[in-house]
Automatic annotation (TrEMBL):
This is histidine kinase. It comes from the Bacteria. PANTHER family: SENSOR HISTIDINE KINASE TRCS, SENSOR HISTIDINE KINASE YKOH. The keyword Endoplasmic reticulum does not apply. It is found in: Cell membrane. Residues 166-216 form the HAMP domain.
Length: 420
């Protein structure tokens, strides 16, 4: 539950997630629509107000022309000196009436109307302040309404994006489980959704089914080959015992023994791959167990035990892991080989060329020893050690020392404490 909440919080704080990209796209689209509508409304309203202002100015000019024709009086509220020069030039050049919006003084905008009469310029003006204030109020209302719509639309977009985002997270979790070795993990989508996420989910499930079937087929093949080889191999072992002693016989017996160990390793790997192996746990003193395991390998190793740790683990499988790690260090590395037991950690280090980059990146691979300088072999020892570590719930990591040498670190699941 806590991990799920933590993942949800990380998703909310990840601004690069699909949820926030959709919200940003909706916000941009809403802003574009609001801006376009606002500009169109502003221009339409402005043109309408300008038209009303011109009509008012023309009506005032007609009234002034009537007064002038009857009395010869000119309007006194319009100072000819304030007439915009461009308007005056147009009226003089055309001899017709002209209107002009004058916003040179933003606090008092005017709409002018002029008409040349008897060699004089008859001019009137009307106050456009109320119209411009109405237009400014309209602009403010449009901005306020757009912000209010964004405040509602963006959260709704985030909520709407949560469903596909959740489905994609489920697909990602399933893919990670498959990558971690859980070949039974599925998205459990029936394929009737019809959208792209459903298609991805169905494809992922199909891929997992094909991968599981292929691995099961490979495991069955390995187990069948190992079992089929066991019977003729036992015949070879018995036959070599009947051969007379000699150099050729010793060589044949050595090769048969290698073949026997290979078949036993393949059988062990097939059991580990099947997932049928279970740990038989017991409280064991790590120092003594590791010492006995190293001694059974028959090779030289410097053992260091810090304290007197006791762990709850499977002693038989732990012995197999330690034996394989120490044997691998001697076979592919260089002496001295150091084995250190510190709490629940067991470290095996050699002073050879180190693990190849492929092993560090991908982990142990059967029938692959990596670099030639690591020596020859089947590549099964570390594969078995990794599988047995997984059975007992331990973590086995492979690194290289900066000054040279391969390091294998086994971390048991728990440590009981010092032996009393």
């Amino acid at each position: 539950m806590g991990r799920a909440v933590a993942r949800r919080n990380r998703g909310l704080s990840n601004w690069r997630s699909l949820r926030w990209k959709i919200a940003a796209l909706v916000a941009l689209a809403s802003c574009a629509v609001a801006t376009t509508v606002g500009v169109l409304v502003h221009r339409s309203t402005s043109e309408r107000l300008m038209g009303l202002g011109r009509d008012r100015a023309f009506s005032a000019l007609v009234s002034a022309l009537d007064d002038y024709s009857r009395t010869g009086a000119t309007p006194t509220d319009a100072d000819p000196a304030q007439i915009p020069p461009a308007l005056l030039q147009q009226a003089v050049s055309t001899g017709q009436h002209r209107t002009w919006y004058d916003d040179r003084r933003s606090e008092i905008p005017w709409m002018w109307a002029v008409q040349p009469v008897d060699g004089r310029i008859l001019a009137v003006r009307v106050d456009m302040g109320s119209e411009m204030r109405s237009l400014q109020a309209l602009d403010r209302n449009i901005v306020a309404a757009s912000l209010a719509v964004l405040a509602v639309v963006v959260p709704l977009a985030v909520l709407a994006a949560e469903l596909p985002h959740r489905r994609l997270r489920k697909v990602a979790r399933t893919a990670r489980r498959i990558a971690d070795g859980d070949l039974e993990a599925r998205t459990m989508v029936d394929g009737r959704g019809g959208d792209e996420i459903t298609e991805i989910s169905v494809t992922l499930d199909s891929m997992a089914d094909a991968l599981r079937d292929r691995l099961l087929s490979e495991q069955r093949f390995t187990a069948d080959v190992a079992h089929e080889l066991r019977t003729p191999l036992m015949g070879l072992v018995v036959s070599t015992d009947l051969l007379p002693d000699g150099e050729a016989t010793a060589l044949v017996r050595d090769r048969v023994q290698v073949l026997r160990e290979l078949v036993e390793d393949l059988l062990e790997i097939s059991r580990l791959d099947s997932g049928a192996e279970r740990a038989d746990r017991a409280s064991v003193p790590l120092g003594r167990l590791v010492e006995e395991s190293v001694a059974r390998t028959g090779v030289q190793a410097r053992l260091t035990v810090i304290g007197d740790p006791v762990a709850d683990t499977d002693p038989r499988r732990l012995d197999r892991i330690i034996s394989n790690l120490v044997s691998n260090a001697h076979r592919h590395g260089r002496a001295p080989v150091d084995v250190t037991v510190n709490g629940a950690s067991i470290v095996v280090r050699d002073h050879g060329p180190g693990f190849p980059d492929e092993l560090l990146a991908e982990g142990p691979q059967r029938f692959r020893t990596g670099a030639a300088e690591r020596g020859q072999g089947h590549g099964l020892g570390l594969t078995i050690a990794t599988g047995q570590a997984r059975v007992i719930g331990a973590a086995l990591a492979f690194t290289n020392a900066p000054e040279g040498g391969a390091i294998a670190t086994l971390r048991l699941r728990s440590e009981i404490g010092p032996q009393g």
